[in-house]
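Morning!

This is the sequence you dropped in the shared folder:
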Amino acid sequence: METAGHSNMCRCCASEGAFKDIKSTYHWMGEEEIYADMLKDCFDINLNVSEHGEDGGICEVCITQLRNAINFKKQVQHTEEQFKKHLQNKALFRPNIVKVEVGGEEDSDGDNMGSGDDAFSGAEFDVPIKTEEDDPKPKKRSKASATTTRSKKSKSDDGEPSTKRVNDKEFDNIIDEWMKLADDLSDCDMDIEDEEHVIPPITSRNASAEPAVLADITPRETQILDIEDRQNDLAIRELVSSDCYDFKWTRDRQIFTGRRETFTGTPGPAFEMTDQTRIVDIFYKMIDIDFVDNICTETNRYAEQKIKILKDQNKFLPTIRLYRWTPTDRNEMISFLAIIILQGLYPLQEEESYFCFNGFGTMPYFSKIMSYNRFVLIKSLIHFVDNETITDPTKLCKIQTVTDYFNDKFSSLYNPSQDIVIDESLLKWHGRLGFAQKILSKAAQVGVKTYELCESSSGYLWKFFVYAGKDKTKTANATTTDDIDDTDDRPAEPETTEQLLPGSSDARPSNATAKIVYDLVEPLLHRGHTLIMDNFYNSPLLARCLKRQGTDCYGTLRLNREFVPDSLKTVTKTDLRQGEVMASYCADLSIIVWRDSNLVSMISTYHNLQIGTKQKYNRLTYKPRVVLNYNKSMGGVDRKDQFLSAQPLERTKNKIWYKKLFRRLFNTAIFNCFIIFKTTDDKISHRQFRITLAEDLLKIHRQIDLTQQRRPTNRPQLEHRHFPVRTGFKQSRCWMCAQRKVTARTIWKCLQCDVNLCIENCFIAYHI
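The structure's back. Tokens below.
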């Protein structure tokens, strides 16, 4: 019962304005509470009655902290019993026979450890700590006393066995046993008997950013998400047996037995790398000669098809650029790719500027490699498949051979480390395209979406596939020879996904998220990898399926997914204070809900409720360990996109979507080559890697050396009879200083050149 103000209370409680009587009985979560008794039990504090007979009051903030302290004491007592049982089972100690004495040196932090000492000072504990009262004058222990053996026992005055002293080595062994036991047991920072798992609240200034969660969405979008999640959960059921459906959720963390899988893979390049391996050697493994020859063949074939169509229409005139077409070959195609690499290093507003010679910004080397007209011809006619052989046209038929090739190369040349990530990437495209995606959380927002599996630490793209929308095949009247656009003439709005903010459409992807995950990660199962995913993919059933196949996973989770405990599904933002946590466990999974600026729900196969720290702006922030690991490891795909954004090969204007996608994949292939090369030379930068690669390709296939040479000079070199001589007392203007518009006079000149020069600096500079 809340009362009016008491004079017998602290200023903190009085300032709250709402408080409860200190000696009255209250009920909280089915238990009786008397705050005066709680203070006595936990802190040994007796509250005196005031002069006016008032008992005093306590505010809600102090009540919360008092409950947390009581819970902590219970946890310590529970852990104490576990230690006792464990040590007795191992026969390390015998009660009332052998005890450990800790030296009486005063602890500088003794004032802050009162509650901890009370918790460990029970009579039933086998290793009592000797207090300062027992030995008021501590003395330094001699070497003899530190080596006392077990056989030396003495009786005290009351007949009880005296305290046994052990040496430092034995004491270290005891501590090691305690630490091993602490590792075997779950974290004891929460009371397992409490109805709710709550940690002490963290102040707002210590709270930091949480993993990306869904923003507040409309009820209509919530209904759409629920339907989509139910469909995904049904799809997962088809992949597992019925025994996986049994989830026995509890708040008792002792039943959680999840441990991280042992990684058995060998991360790094899948081929032999030496110090003599060149950058261009790795490029040839990624882009082999057969692939380049196939592009040349299909490009020449497509050019012939174009010319034939124009001739049939009487439009093949000398005024068009295609009239000057000649078949391309391997050397020219690789030179074309080298130009694309250089364009990403030196971005200009207009593509024609790379081949111009007017004024500033001139790029003289591009025209030495290839003329502008020839470059535009190859760019417009580059092709990857024979249109006449396409019998079953699909949305990706023009680029399918390229995606299959790069998927095979990416996964065969490199083995990822233990942590891998699945996420989406978006290639910006604002043209007409039936399966364009709209994801407002991405930088591009609208474009071609790819599902990607990357290495967490480096961002290496290991496997991917392009999302082509709902329809598997094109319409019957779709043309395969029109490369201006692969869609029909009617305008097509981008298809939206569940990452959209309010205002999205009803269109949903047809493939279940579980199928996406299995298609990407299936070759890496049973190797001990750890898969990090966001709430677009995660579900309890999928996590259990992956765990049974030797693959850990963790990440954010939507609480409306199937098999999530009902006690967590109803949790709202107002149920928890800043920094509080709720958790549920089953044998192999844990779900943690943490309140930061928003509710953050996480699922893991090996994380329990551990609180970690991170220093930011010279102060510590506190978060669950699974959140810290997620923030550190989830950015694999974004890390790759960040590297590629600095080398924008695909940002040039292009009317055909699959040619832009080819540039994106080629750009990613170069980035993967960079990751492979970094395993032997970690000092080279990404930019220098691309410059060296382009130069080596042009030296091999165009016999062009892009190394800058010094301009020729007409000045005489410092040889033969070029000696300084005095001109007398008359000073003349220095020729070198005059060129720099500096007024300087000198009495020295060159005898051979007959030019006045300052003897200190200008004489040598003139003759170099």
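Headline: The chain has four domains: 11-149+175-184, 219-263+417-462+477-631, 279-381+646-701, 724-767.

More detail when I'm at my desk.
O.
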